[in-house]
Amino acid sequence: MNKLWVKFLGLALLAFAAFVAVEWDAWQQARLRGQVVAAPVGGGAIPALARELLDAEAPKTVIHAWATWCPPCMVEMPKILDMLQKPHPGVVFVMLNEDDEPETLARFLAAKGLDKAPLPGVRWVHDKEQVMGQALLPSLKLPTTWVYDGTGVLLQRMDGSVDWATFLNVL
Amino acid sequence: MTQCAHEVLVGIPLLLGILVLLMILVVLGTLAQAHMPLYQAQALYFNAPLVWVAGVLPLPGVPVVLGLLAFTLLLRVLDDPLTWRKAPVFVSHVAVILLILAGMANTMGSRMGYVVAAPGISTRLWQKEPMDDATPPSAWPVLGTLPFTVVLQKFERVNHPGTDVAASFSSEVVVVPEGAGQGFKALISMNKPLRYDGYTLYQASYVEVEPGKVSSVLAVVYDRSRLLPYLATAVLALGLLWRLGQKMLRRWLLLFVIGVFLAPSGWAEGALWDGLAVQHLGRLKPMATMAGVVVPQILGRGVREVEAQALLADWMMTDAVAEGKVKLTLGSPSLIAKLGLKPSPDGYTVPELVVALRPLAPALEQWEVLPDKALTVRQKEVLELVGRVENVLAIPRTLVMVRPSVMINPDVSAAVGLPVGLASPWEVLSRKDAIMAALVDKKVSPPVQQELVRMVAFLKAVAPERPNGLLRLIPPAVGDVWLSPWMALREEGGVSARQAQALKGWGMMAAAYPAVESVGWLEGKRLVCEAEAPAVPTFRLKLEELVVAYPPLLWSLLPMGLGLLGFLWGRMRFLAPWVGLGGGLLGISLGLLSRMVILGRPPVATLYESVVFVAWVVLALAVLFGRKYPPARVGGLALAILLIGVSFFLTQGNDTMGVLIAVLNTRFWLGVHVLTITAGYAFALLVGAGAIACLVHVILRGRAEAMERAQRWLSALILAAVLFTAVGTLLGGVWASESWGRFWGWDPKENGALVLTLWLIAVMHIRMMKPFPLLFWLGSAALTPVVVALSWFGVNLLSVGLHSYGFISGVAGGLAVFCLGAVFLVVLLVLGAWKRAV
User: Fold this and answer.
1) Nearest to B27 by CA among B71, B75, B59
2) Are B97 and B211 in contact (CB under 8 A)?
3) In sequence order, what are the residues at sequence separation of 6 or more whose Cβ sits closer than 8 angstroms to the Cβ of residue B361?
4) Is the pLDDT of residue A39 over 50?
5) What is the DSSP string of A37-56?
6) What are the tens digits of pLDDT across the range B54-96?
7) Which of B98, B124, B185 comes nearest A18 by C-beta?
8) A141 in B contact zone (CB under 8 Å)
9) How far apart are CA B767 and CA B759, in angstroms?
10) What mean pLDDT comes out for the span B690-719?
11) How far apart are CA A58 and CA A62, in angstroms?
């Protein structure tokens, strides 16, 4: 039995077994797809009242609801502004200000120097009466962030502060 | 030149060097986990190509060393001629190469993250674990997006009956593939992951984002290579078993029998409380067991079984607690000082403690809501004392409602229709309407009216603010959550007939106990037992009472001790093994079997159980190997006595049969893993005992050559130890992979098992060195128990990691003494043997 080919046959067998092991899940899951039960999930389209926030040109729109009086929003705001300094191709950001007086928002933008040097691809929208905010989410709590695609289908909603560095990377 | 390099590369010394280096790295990385988070220790010690020890000494990192190991093994595999004799070695070596390759593929190709699914909200966000626990789920770092959307439909958490310990979680989700208008429903529960599109979704845990809003946390792993380690494990097991079979073909069958056992198919003096059941910490158990747990815990000191049962009766059915007859011992002087108490060796009465604790009440409210980690040792001590005091106060309250305590005089009796004499508040309450009518209508005379008002005031005074659930004595009308008398009386829809009978029975017992009236006691007990009967597994309960009264493990020490003594004495040599091994094996078998019956699961889920199980395996092996290799008998007996002794230190009170936390419950792979690895520990301990016996043999006889057979047996034992520890450790990986989605996580306990495996592999290969260094081999084999002790108990001292079932303190001193003593003994023996041989 002391033959080289026996040794290599053994190794080849093992390699084949390893190949099967690696591909096993793919085969199993092909079977699983056959057992799919139809179950539609609704509530994906953007509400008509907030439709104007969407940029039909851009593949993705990020809507971020915030306010100057909301502590967690203001904690993460410097980070957001810092991250938005550089352009994010294909992504439009809508900073939806809720419930603040127009002067407060203007003062905030001036303080950050954003009135003179606007950020690329970022729109600041003032929503004093929370019309659009409530349309997006009736029980709105700040901060909340949505990601919509160009056709207005909701891709992701995040309730609360976000780890912006990694989030924007993934976008 | 190349020839020379080749020699070095395939040589045993290099292999030993690699193994020792790996052990050092693993130990360093494990110790580091005590003072830094796991991911950091992992990055510094296990994933880095270069490790700086103490910042100055550079060592090659784990990936480099493993790569070198795979390379030398590959050379070995290609070099060695393949014959039938060498085939198992070939297979084992190939398996190790495959394992290392699988590890590399896993490190490079797999990604693990979490999906936090809030009910009804679709998400595809794949997030990493946050750096600290305080980060809300939305702010966890984002790893990527999944190619499908997950919507949580329903999250369920099921507790063990009557406790807050989770028995299982599950999430019902809808998965919608990208771009599809439809999805499919799937149920993800603990240990039942969903595999889809190359991703595996496991139920990890849950977070309560705001009160009442629970989000399910799913671990999501993308890993194409996840089955490779399984394959490597199977091949390694095959190779080592084959090799073992070659070494001892005759014992093959016996090993097979042990193997079959390893595949899990799946258990006082009771006169006072005899036959009565109570639900405590999620498990139905005899009152005797409960007394043995609760009474020492409250008193803060050890109490004999019989005494504990009598004390519980005193506390429940007399006014001993309120009268200050119960004295709680406080162990820590700092606690005594903090409470402003005078040192007192007898302890402190409950009223004294209540007064002493009162000024701390505002602080206590704050501490109680803090997580365990945030508390200082001092605060924990106070909270623990508060728990003890609350428990001792809860006990007499338990039966207040059913204990006859309200005097009914003939006038009152006539007015409300209760019999004359003592009545229980419960009976009085059942006539509530009549009492109210008598008071409102004013048809009764003023003295009677006064008496009635006094009764109502008394009833208000005995009612506690909230029903306590410590002593759940009353069987439920439906379901499996037992109730305390208070809870039963507060149930909506009133008590059922059976519950009423049980309550009445307890009332009779409570009336009879202070009066020392045995007829009433027995009659009450009969009523309770009868009412409980349908809800109680009578056989299990009886068995447990029997086991509590006559602990088989304790009794097994007697024949084993006698056997060992007889052996040492010398004249009884023929009898000793039979008495010691037979009696010990019988006792431990009975103990383990009864546990299996009572608990309905394999007896290896807690540290205590696994120690007892190892003792059983050691004895069984000593019986098997004893005929051909007599030193195994003495070694086995001594080890078993030691282990059973150790096991008594691992119990807390007398109830060693706690419920298991969710992830440990009912898992096939877990059962196989723990049984295999504990058998591995047993073999490793026997290796040590056998090696010491060999060393003594050399010293006594002076001729090493004559022990050819003993050496063969020892090397077979080492091989068996390698087989069981290596395969057992890898099976642990299989289990972890099945339930958490990662095969290996550098958890301290995993590392401990790995170090032991590496050690045994090193010892095994020393025998292949030329010339054969016999004393070096025996010496390192004799040190194996030290490695076992450190990797088995020692890692528990770190108190970090996932194997939290066995965190213990207070054994550190014993462990250190054992290890130093053993090292000293082995060094002495090796020196003696060396002198003798020269």
Assistant:
1) B59
2) no
3) none
4) no
5) PP------BPPGGGGGG--T
6) 778 888 988 999 999 999 999 888 888 888 888 889 999 999 9
7) B98
8) no
9) 13
10) 78
11) 10
Task: Please answer whether residues B722 and B764 qualify as being in contact, where contact means their C-beta atoms are separated by less than 8 angstroms.
Answer: yes
Residue % of chain B over a pLDDT of 70? 83
Q: Which residue of A has its CA nearest to B181?
A: A40
CB atoms within 10 A of CB B751: 27
* Residues 59-118 of chain B whose Cβ lies under 8 A from any Cβ of chain A: 77-78, 81-84, 90-91, 94, 98, 118
Instruction: Assign 3-state DSSP to chain A and report helix, strand, coil percentages, each to 5.
Output: 45, 20, 35
- Please check whether residue B113 is in contact with residue B220, taking contact to mean a CB–CB distance below 8 angstroms: yes
- A-chain residues within 8 Å CB-CB of B149? 41
Is the pLDDT at A87 greater than 90, yes or no?
Answer: no
pLDDT at residue B652 is higher than 70: no
Between chains, do A2 and B82 touch, taking CB under 8 Å as contact?
yes
B332 touches A at CB < 8 Å: no
User: pLDDT tens digit string along B427-449?
Assistant: 887 777 778 777 777 667 777 88
Contact A25 B98 (CB under 8 A): no
Q: Is the pLDDT of residue B268 over 50?
A: no
Cα A109 from Cα B49, distance rounded (Å):
48
* CA–CA distance, B262 with A61 (Å, rounded to integer): 58
Contact A40 B98 (CB under 8 A): no
- B436 CA to centre of own chain: 54
Cβ-in-10-Å burial (0-12, 13-18, 19+) of B16 comes to middle
Closest chain B residue to A3 measured between Cα atoms?
A: B82
**Token reading at A75:** 């904690």
Q: List the alpha helices (DSSP H) in B370-470.
A: 377-398, 410-416, 425-430, 432-441, 446-462
Q: Report whether B535 contacts B475 (CB < 8 A).
A: yes
Q: Distance of CA B728 to CAs A18, B512, B695, B720, B723, Å?
A: 21, 56, 29, 12, 8
Nearest CA in chain B to A1: B83
Distance CA B751, CA B732 (A): 12
Which range, B418-422, B588-592, B821-825, is most confident?
B821-825
pLDDT value for B389: 85
What is the predicted ipTM? 0.79
Kindly list the strands in the beta sheet with B142-159, ordered across the sheet, starting from the edge strand earlier in the chain. B184-189, B166-177, B142-159, B122-127, B111-117, B213-222, B199-210, B194-196
B122: closest chain A residue by CA: A156
H helices of B665-770, in order, are 668-701, 708-740, 748-766
Which has more confidence, B566 or B114?
B114
Report yes or no: B185 at the A interface, CB cutoff 8 Å. Answer: yes
**pLDDT average, residue stretch B748-776:** 88
Given A1, A21, A43, which is nearest B230 (Cβ)? A21
Cβ of B142 within 8 Å of Cβ of A160? The answer is: no
User: Is A163 in contact with B139 (Cβ distance < 8 A)?
Assistant: yes
Cα–Cα distance for residue pair B154/B167, rounded to 1 Å: 17
User: Hey, are the CB atoms on A39 and B90 less than 8 Å from each other?
Assistant: no
Sign of CA dihedral B120, B124, B129, B132: negative
pTM of the model: 0.60
